[in-house]
Amino acid sequence: MTFSHNRRAVSGKGGKVGKASTLNRHARRSPAGLAAAQAPEDGDAQNVTAHLDSFVARLRARLITGAATYGDASFTRPAPELVDEVQQELEDVAGWSLLLWIRLERLKQTVATQGWEKTHGE
User: I need a labelling partner for 24 at 20 to 30 A (CA). Which of 11, 39, 91, 117 fits?
Assistant: First the structure.
């Protein structure tokens, strides 16, 4: 199962859509920007503010990378294209959620068969 989509490359000039090309989702992310926006330590699980700060920092890094790659073309793209992009992203979220759900089901089965009934570190 893959969640890469055929996306149309967008030039930074006038929001024109270029020839169709396949963009690797991971190539659109800036490793340097994301590395600077690490999640809080496990001990901070209850610290919503720290998690929110991490989320916003990661979002900011992605927006900066996107602006450097595509310019302001998204502001001039036709609305149906933007709707399609959002639909693709939601499909990705649903697909990755399914994969994580499957892994959690396997973990739950492993925990049940191992007899690990304590869930709060007691």
Answer: 39
Angle among Cα 36, 37, 43 to the nearest 5 degrees reads 115
**46-99 residue pLDDT tens:** 688 888 999 999 999 999 999 999 898 888 999 999 999 999 999 999 999 999
What type of residue sits at position 11? S
Closest CA to 73 of 6, 7, 1, 5: 7
For residue 38, the one-letter residue type is: Q
CA 106, CA 100: separation in Å to the nearest integer?
A: 10
Q: Give the integer Cα–Cα distance in Å for 34 and 63.
A: 11
How is the chain classified by DSSP, letter by letter?
Answer: -----EEEEE-SSTT-EEEEEE--GGGGS-HHHHHTTPPPPGGGTT-HHHHHHHHHHHHHHHHHHHHHHHTTGGGTS-HHHHHHHHHHHHHHHHHHHHHHHHHHHHHHHHHHHHT----S--
β-pair partners for 91:
none
Report which of 28, 98, 104, 17 is spatially closest to residue 61, judged by C-alpha positions: 28
